[in-house]
Specification:
With about 240 residues, the protein is α/β, with parallel strands linked by helices. The protein is built from ten helices and seven strands. Strands 5-4-3-6-7 form a five-stranded parallel β-sheet, sandwiched between helices. Helix 6 links the parallel strand 4 and strand 5. Helix 4 packs parallel to helix 9. It starts with 14 loop residues before the first helix and ends in a 9-residue tail after the last helix.
């Protein structure tokens, strides 16, 4: 809206469009392992860079967006209004989902522990977290979870014991009148859940809008079962993420 053209590496359709990105003045990266690439582009093309982490911490979201606006000399938008909208979307989702259990896995989002913290603080019934690695941005959320929910199970997905998971937790939950809602494809696979949020590394969403999008997806997952086997085997062309 300020007249700045935003290029996206993943949206390039041909090589010339890709090469044209060398004329950009700024590189924005959201994953820590991309920092090295940005440092090399700074040396080779004199392009500056800024880090906007895929965080679910509302304070961090505002700080990141503020830094971007200051760098680009833009007027600051009403972050408080965006934050209120995000919180209202979460309230709308929990009003629908209630105390049905949520299972979260690390393939859905980089800062999956921050997501768990956000959902727990909102009142969602987060029951299990699946993860094999913890990013530096997630360390504070890890400490919060250890202090506030020490009983919350943390399950590895690449450990060989995972091969022997029964995959019937969702069916067992139905016997007690509950729906397991899985956030991420691995959580859906390990639980056998058909009520799930099909998200891989945020599905291209960011910040407060990511929270609103996730809230809508949680409501959709609650009401609409999905054909999980046909969805989670698609990892490249045609993948919604």
């Amino acid at each position: 809206s300020s007249g700045i053209k935003v290029n996206d590496l993943a949206s390039c359709t041909d090589y010339d469009e890709y090469l044209a990105m060398r004329n950009s003045c700024l590189n924005i990266y959201s994953l820590p392992n991309a920092k090295y690439c940005c440092e090399q582009l700074k040396k080779k093309l004199n392009q500056d860079f800024i880090y906007l982490p895929l965080t679910w911490n509302m304070k961090k979201i505002k700080e990141s967006l503020k830094n971007l606006c200051i760098y680009l000399n833009l007027n600051l938008p009403d972050f408080n209004a965006w934050e209120t909208a995000a919180k209202n979307s979460l309230k709308k989702a929990i009003d629908v989902i209630g105390d049905n259990p949520l299972y979260i896995d690390y393939s859905a989002t980089t800062c999956y522990l921050e997501l768990a913290k956000l959902l727990l603080e909102t009142g969602f019934n987060v029951q299990v977290i699946y993860g094999d690695i913890i990013q530096p941005d997630d360390k504070d959320a890890l400490e919060w979870l250890k202090a506030n929910t020490p009983e919350l199970p943390f399950r590895a997905t690449k450990d060989f014991h995972s091969r022997f998971v029964s995959g019937d937790e969702a069916e067992l939950a139905k016997l007690s009148g509950k729906k397991i809602i899985a956030i991420g494809q691995k959580a859906a696979y390990f639980t056998g859940a058909t009520n799930f949020v099909n998200m891989i590394e945020n599905n291209g969403t960011y910040g407060f809008s990511a929270i609103e999008t996730l809230s809508d997806m949680l409501i959709d997952a609650y009401f609409n079962e999905k054909d999980v086997p046909n969805i989670i085997q698609v990892k490249a062309w045609g993948c919604s993420a």
